[in-house]
Amino acid sequence: MFEDPRILWFIPGLPLLASVVTAFLGPRLLRDKSHWPCVLAVIASCALAIGVFASVSSGFQGLHTSYTWFQTGDVDIGVSLRVDGLTAVMLVTVTFIGSWIAIYSIGYMHGDPGYPRYFAEISLFVFAMTGLVLADNFVLLYAFWEGVGLCSYLLVGYYFAKPSAAAAARKAFLVTRLGDVGLLIGILLIYTALGPSLDYESVMPRGQHASPGVLCAVCLLLFTGAVGKSAQFPLHVWLPDAMEGPSPVSALIHAATMVTAGVYLVARCTPLFGFSPSAQLVVACIGGFTAFLAALIALTQTDLKRVLAYSTISQLGYMFLALGSGTSHEYLAGIAVAAAIFHLFTHAFFKALLFLAAGSVMHAMGGVIDMRRIGGLRKVMPTTHWTFLCGAGALSGFPIIFSGFWSKDEILAVAFKAGQPGSFANSIYILLFLLGLVTAGLTAFYTFRAYFLTFWGPERVPPEAGHHAHESPPVMLVPLMVLAAGAVFAGILLGPTGIFEHFLEVHWMQAAFPRLLPATEHHGNLPLMVASSLFALGGIGLAWWLYVRRPALAREMAQALPGAYELSKNKFYLDEIFAALVVRPLAGLAHFLRVFDQYIVDSFVDLTAHAPRWLGHLLRPVQNGLVQFYALLMVLGLAGFLLSVLMR
Length: 648
What we know:
By secondary structure, this protein is mainly alpha-helical. 73% of the residues lie in helices and 3% in strands. The N and C termini lie far apart (104 Å).
């Protein structure tokens, strides 16, 4: 059944149908039952995605069906849906996480006046995201890419009457558009340099025949799109503000799926990046620096969701560090992309879990998420507490037990291998490896800082929570428990055995770029595991010492280092810098152009319009309606004519 290519249409088609049904029938007929089309459609898509995954595991790949979208010149663009190992993993990730988030939303959004609109937008997002990973050519990918951006705008600005939410949605939309412009130019350059076909299968092999400069430009332009969508420096500034949306939106779009679209794009284009070491080095440097910068900012944030937002930026940086480290050795490209996608997979579980747990806290605390106003909730909210602890352990890379340890360790191993032996580029990879190791320690510290501030210490419940703080309802807790199980077991089941890497190698990599990837074996790096474990445990221990054992010491350290503390707390003033260098100059230019248009251009147009009227004023006295005057003019005219003849 799942070997039938027509099945692929139902995976994005069912959520699209649910979105249309909910949008038209929800406000009047479904009302508080508006979640049913979304939940049923996403669960059905998940079941189909798992079936397709099983068929790919059995040896089927390249399943597709298509019709011609448009033809122009020598370009023939089809709506073609294709499945291979990479697509199968992404489909299962998006639909499985999306299913539990949709179920969680039933309890979280209960009673909200925009209930039907919310589920219509969630369904539309799942449609766009599944279409993006199923697309078989760059034009179709770009269409769904923009669809995902539109859904992000709608969901971030869900509370559109709230000025901060409207501003956050506008900021997310505009900042990601900057990256999208680069992606569009990159696709056009692919057409001129590697085209005319824009299908993946046609474009990827041609990379080795392109000039190094052109290929590097193509890769960097594609990466620009990924930088915007996946919130990498310097276009990362939209993601923390996007936390203005509901917590399930944060979990679905800005932690588990949408922001990983950029990682998917670079992974899909690995055959192109593999022939451009310079572009890969840029990817690795941007990823490593972003991971470190976001971790530094997260150290001092007091809003729980913002801490998680910066951790998302940091973890995405890890993924790009891996994708950019697939150079120097042919086989390294394969294990690099496998490490990045493995971390994407585990990150989807534990980051969605953490955002949903934060939403559970927010739900119980009357909307308060400021860690300075809440605390000691482990007894008040026991299930939320232990599920958050599972997510925190996975994010921090707690050794052996949690999934984040295995996937993050593979990324560090790839960066370390890329630094062997000793050219200048290899030296940069060694520095990036060390930066990633330090970032692992920072991640463990700020993650457990958030955990201890929220769930330990004296019980602090804000007045907004009412008289009795309570645990969330079962419809919200069951998704937390399922995702907690994934955060714990996904790594231990897949990491040590190398099953994940082997699946991607056999069912995607060997077909996508066989020249870059001979058969590989999975090897662990025990010294590196020990080093990363020490950094993680050290960060956790330091957080416990500062926020449980000696809480006053944290305040003393902040007072002792006011400059560093203020830099981190104020996000290194990057928003202010961008406002000074980009926003205000462009706003000034816009004001100048508006004034120029109003007083110069409009005045010139008005002058042109007034000219006939002024000319009419000059001739109007001649047309006075008196016959005698007309006769006089005729006589004078005749006299003038005769005079001119006589004077010749």
